[in-house]
């Protein structure tokens, strides 16, 4: 089955076409551009490009996989709205995967690992994975010093992700170069069991983990002295 994969939870704007079979998952085409300010401008052209490269029309898709975050509100919703809209228009199921899983799962090669992405405001989104790649803590958002303490308590021996690169000195764990951003192959692989089983499509609920900066006023303020 041909599956479209999208993720916009980090500065890496990713679209890929994956083929899911009984034997495994392979990528047929992929586009990824790191630009924290251009999610809306880049994702749709990336989707168009991977379909064109593989010679596949949208009607040939059997499912859509999207990274659910955690991630900043504006960027994350671009990918989820795109995936949900295409799924509805094409009448194909949509499946969500925690974006940190697509960083931590492939990195946990026999030892516990911390996956961290940049949450801005001098914080990181984070999760911890055991030696088999299963998430055992998180996802959550905290300042790096708090995350460092949690990681030590969980016996973590390595870290990965853009947030780990940004705050390497504070987190204080051996740093791996890759993956720095969610892997399209990992996203498809983590959803593959549901795809093969033709599981019902899921509502793509974003993992924001914190409230947006802009909130509605709760009461009117008097203009009189």
Describe the structure.
The chain is of the alpha/beta class. It has 2 domains: 2-99 and 182-196, ATPase, nucleotide binding domain (Nucleotidyltransferase, domain 5, 2-Layer Sandwich); 101-171, 2-Layer Sandwich (Nucleotidyltransferase, domain 5), CATH 3.30.420.40. The chain has helices at residues 39-54, 73-90, 101-107, 144-153, 162-166, 168-171, 184-196, and strands at 2-7, 12-21, 24-34, 63-67, 94-97, 113-120, 123-129, 135-142, 158-160. A 5-stranded mixed sheet has the order 3-2-1-4-5, with helices on both faces. A 4-stranded mixed sheet has the order 8-7-6-9, sandwiched between helices. Strand 7 and strand 8 form a beta hairpin. Helix 1 runs parallel beside helix 2. The longest helix is centred in the middle third of the chain and has 18 residues, at 73-90. The radius of gyration is 18 Å and the shape is globular. Mean pLDDT is 94; it is low at 213-217. InterPro entries: ATPase_NBD, Gcp-like_dom, T6A_TsaB. Residues 36-149 form the Gcp-like domain. It comes from Micromonospora cathayae.
Name a few traits of the molecule:
single chain; 225 residues; alpha/beta; Nucleotidyltransferase, domain 5; 2 domains; 5-stranded mixed beta sheet; 4-stranded mixed beta sheet; 7 helices; 9 strands; 32% helix; 28% strand; globular; transferase; Gcp-like_dom; ATPase_NBD
């Amino acid at each position: 089955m041909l599956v479209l994969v999208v993720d916009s939870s980090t500065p890496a704007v990713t679209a890929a076409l994956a083929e899911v079979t009984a034997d495994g998952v392979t990528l047929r085409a992929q586009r990824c551009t790191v630009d924290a300010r251009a999610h809306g401008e880049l994702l749709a052209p990336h989707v168009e490009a991977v379909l064109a490269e593989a010679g596949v029309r949208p009607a040939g898709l059997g499912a859509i996989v999207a990274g659910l975050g955690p991630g900043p509100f504006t960027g994350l919703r671009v990918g989820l709205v795109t995936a949900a809209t295409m799924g509805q228009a094409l009448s194909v199921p949509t499946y969500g995967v925690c974006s940190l899983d697509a960083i931590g799962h492939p990195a946990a090669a026999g030892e516990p690992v911390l996956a961290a992405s940049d949450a801005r405001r001098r914080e990181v989104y984070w999760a911890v994975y055991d030696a088999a790649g299963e998430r055992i803590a998180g996802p959550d958002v905290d300042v790096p010093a708090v995350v460092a303490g949690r990681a030590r308590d969980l016996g973590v021996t390595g870290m990965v992700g853009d947030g780990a690169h940004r705050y390497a000195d504070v987190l204080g764990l051996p740093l791996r170069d890759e993956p720095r951003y969610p892997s399209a192959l990992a996203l498809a692989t983590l959803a593959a069991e549901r795809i093969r089983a033709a599981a019902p499509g899921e509502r793509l609920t974003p993992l924001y983990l914190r409230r947006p900066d802009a909130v509605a006023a709760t009461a009117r303020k008097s203009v009189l002295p």
